[in-house]
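It is worth pausing here to work through a concrete case rather than discussing structure prediction in the abstract. The textbook approach is simple: state the sequence, then state the predicted structure, then interpret. We follow exactly that order.
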Amino acid sequence: MNEDALLYQVALTLVPGVGSVLGKKLVSIVGSAEAIFRETRPALTKMGRVGKTIAIAVKNKELLLRAEQEIAFITRYGITPLFFQNKDYPQRLRHCYDSPVILYYKGTADLNSPRIVGIVGTRSATAYGKAVTNDIIKDLVSQQILVISGLAYGIDGCAHRSALDHGLSTVGVLGHGLDRVYPYFHKALAEKMLTQGGLVTEFLSGTTPDRENFPRRNRVIAGLCDAVVVIEAAKKGGALITANIANSYNRDVFAVPGRITDPYSEGTNFLIRTNRAALIQKADDLEYLMGWKQAHTVPQVIQKKIFQELTTDEEQIVNILQTHGQMDIDAIVIQSGLNMSAVSSALLNLEFEGIVRCQPGKIYVLL
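Step two, the predicted structure:
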């Protein structure tokens, strides 16, 4: 951990008026968080959208003092800071325009796991909702998914517990700092998750679980995942917010239907009725719609022939699709280690050659 660079990265998130979008924009213009703080006030003022107020705020030494306190906290408790330019920053989230400038993570799970599913729902989960949550997670064990949720009461807590019970890793996204657990009732659950998953947040220590933090938390849940599953939800609430954000990020969204008389099925039924989510009843439906059930192979004779004409990048992508079956472009980027531009170019060439096909939802499959 480069503490000199980290000091300015943390401080950047403390500048009044500089949110996730503007913070990343400034870094891209100037080159680094440190460079922003070392720029002159007139130079900062001339940058679009910065303005005199922010240019003055950047020169406030109190920001660096608070950043020093946060570094001491994360060092003491073994927390990993993930700046948006770091290689370990979640790749799926990185592609979201309003992703956090920095995340604070503690745990053992890989936030760039090949298959990540978010499971969310009402805090007032019914026996039906809990049973469905457990059944879906139990039947996804073979996929070795990473389960993401918000550590709230109800469906969230059920999803985390079920993942732990079935040997899957699970990560809770928090709407507060890592110096506390909310709700406190989930403290033991959170501690177990640290050894079989983890906890992640964009909020500094000392941040309380205020209402306005949770929509921000929900966008991180949506951005981390390949797909979001809504189990039970009222017609208003965080689960529907998460689903809408996931749709805006071009994530797959699924919902489990319920009886029309159940208040906590109003939200899920609404998502299905308005085509904001695909209807699923069991894990098998999700696996089929995500293209995780089918394993595609290229005949050996054909493979030898086409590999003579493929670039190294194209050959690597074909091998990945052979191994994993259908995949979206973000998953291919993660598996290959190539950048988005290289993967997009290779996939386009493979489509022209009739070797892969792009299916709805930007899922790629070998022909």
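Step three, interpretation. The mean pLDDT is 90. The domain at 1-76 is CATH 1.10.150 (DNA polymerase; domain 1).
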